[in-house]
Amino acid sequence: MEPIRKHRGVVAPLYKENVDTDQIIPKQHLKRIERTGFGQFLFFDWRYHSDGRDREDFVLNHEHFRNATILVAGKNFGCGSSREHAAWALGEFGFRVILAPSFADIFRNNAGNNGLLLIELAERVIQRIAEHADKHRPYHLHVDLENQTIADDFGLSESFEIDAFRRHRLLHGLDEIGMTLEHEADIARFEERRKSRAMQS
Amino acid sequence: MQKPQSLFEKVWDSHVVRAPEDEPTLLYIDLHLVHEVTSPQAFEGLRLANRKVRRPDLTFATIDHNVPTTSDERFQIKDQVAAQQIATLRKNCDAAGVQLFDIGSGRQGIVHVIGPELGLTQPGKTIVCGDSHTSTHGAFGALAFGIGTSEVEHVLATQCVSQTKPRSMRISVSGKLPEGTTSKDLILEIIRELGTDGGTGHVIEYAGEAVRSLTMEERMTMCNMSIECGARAGMIAPDETTVAYIDDRPYAPKGSAWDKAVSEWRHLVSDEGATFDREIFIDGAKLEPIVTWGTNPGMSVPVTASVPNPEQARDASERAAMISALEYMGLKAGTRIEDITLDRVFIGSCTNGRLEDLRAAAKVIQGHKVHPNVTVLVVPGSEAVKQAAEHEGLDRIFKEAGAQWREPGCSMCLGMNPDILAPKQRCASTSNRNFEGRQGREGRTHLVSPASAAAAAVAGRFVDVRDWEYRN
User: How far apart are the first and last CA of chain B?
Assistant: First the structure.
């Protein structure tokens, strides 16, 4: 997992609530057996006409946003299906940070497991960032995970909360399985305890 | 005296492997269900890291998302990418020694249908699967939730998940559900009330008289859709209904182990005085049949109502969402739900693809004919459900009415197989999600109960199933 400490990038606004993972990557693109190759299918139905042409009205098709690395979205981003393909597609497109008033639980875990930083901010702040991103194209944000702040070139400066453990993993790009296996003895003890309890009766 | 505990706390606490401060809890998993779509990358990850499946004996797999539902294509999948994904699951299960309930085995089916059916799903267990509708298994008093593929890999390698302890919520439903309404209508009502993110970060316990009187299959429908209000899991305390359902199923404990298990399950209730982070009370006696009109499961109204007006939205963001949903759905505010005509009806899915669901739909459709403008797909949730339904003659009732009787799988719930809507087609569906494109690009999905779906199939439009003229 690629670590993320400080990041400066262009912000793309997708200020809609309840963007579900079926929108982030539709089902017909979930049949691959690899972890890669999903970026091209990101927001597929919103991004392309059914004949494959770009939909000009979709934000990521605007020249200013094609290289965006930060997405600003409405509340409950990533709701619905548990498909991690959504996190893979966002990452492969180039996104490193997503800002929203709230995120769905499973998507939050999937993002964390793929080095994607999710930042929750108050609705009014998100709305302001989305407006800026739309108005000042290209609009940049500086994200500092170490100090838990974001700032723009127009005087906006906000701090954000993040779970300490998730922050630690993102800062160092740590693989969760490796971390858990350091406690293999605890798992083995738990299994042993259960086995002996089952034998007793 | 020990502090009163909720059902959720009891199950959580008994599975804690490690709970350091400022870190997620390491939670032991009793049952890991696996399917073809969210597992290949997990098995591949294990191989690359030279890791093994820690507990193949606690891991069970089946094939459900991709499988075609016609009898000829079922064993000869034309979609080569889908076929490869299925072949990969077979190879992975074989290499790891994981039991696979393969197509044609008599035990294949939607993962959330076969877990309970085989007796694998039991009270007090922790259950995960790379699928958000894993919440279904909470109907047995298990703690069950969906996970992503990295977490699937984590469970394969460690038999644990790393989780921050969710908050708790109890939804108590009083009274008795009126005739013609079902647990599907109840959960849709709850989702509308809570909103699609009202349950985020919570495990919901459903309680109260109305819930206690539900059958196991009805309880599964409720817990299944807990994820649609954002909840981590839904749970219902086990009781006599639960015990009777599990008794004698293939993987249920037998003999003295059964007696011991049942006596342990009796403790799996929320203690008197247990506290919840949030409590909600609902009057079940006032429930009406519900139909969704929009593009998330919270956008619903009673069948007797009309499509709502975005001007009634609580804020600008909701108004924008409503306008966009109406446009996508091709609906105008103020249209009576009963005036909405349909092209397709889908009866099936992990929400409503069980035997009782098919019985309820068959009871409505029996002696009637499907409307000439409507194509109806009935897809049993598993090979066992299909066999049982055919044994009762339900297949004949559906076929005589003009519906298509298919082979088991997820089918049109998400349309990963060939069962999809054409653009702009409108479908009454017993599934769980009405998201844009869910059943096919530009397809329009309305979520309803099996009885309402069957009535809509006959009428060619939504009707109030409480007024249905039964012909049996």
Answer: 57
Task: Choose among B18, B41, B438: nearest Cβ to A34.
Answer: B41
Instruction: Give me the total of CB pairs closer than 8 Å, taking one residue from chain A and one from chain B.
Output: 169
Residue contact A177–B158, C-beta within 8 A? yes
From the list B149, B256, B415, the residue facing A27 with the nearest CB is B415
Pairing of strands B59-62, B99-101: parallel
Are B435 and A20 inside 8 Å of each other by CB? Answer: yes
Chain A residues with CB under 8 Å of B194 CB are none
Residue-wise pLDDT for A53-101, tens only, equals 999 999 999 999 999 999 999 999 999 999 999 999 999 999 999 999 9
d(CA B298, CA B293): 9
Identify the CA nearest to B450 among candidates B51, B112, B244, B181: B181
Q: What is the pLDDT of residues B80-94, one digit of tens each?
A: 999 999 999 999 999
Radius of gyration, alpha carbons of chain A: 19
Note the residue count of chain B. 472
| Paired sense of beta strands B300-302 and B233-235, if any | unpaired
Contacts of B23 in chain A (CB under 8 A): 165
Confidence at residue B1, expressed as pLDDT on a 0 to 100 scale: 64
pLDDT of residue A197: 83
Q: What's the mean pLDDT in B108-120?
A: 98
Q: Do A18 and B321 touch (CB under 8 A)?
A: yes
Q: Are B437 and A81 in contact (CB < 8 Å)?
A: no
CA of B422 vs chain A CAs: smallest distance (Å): 12
Quote the CA–CA distance of B429 and B257 in Å, as a whole number.
Answer: 41
Distance CA B161, CA B231 (A): 17
What is the ipTM score, two decimals? 0.96
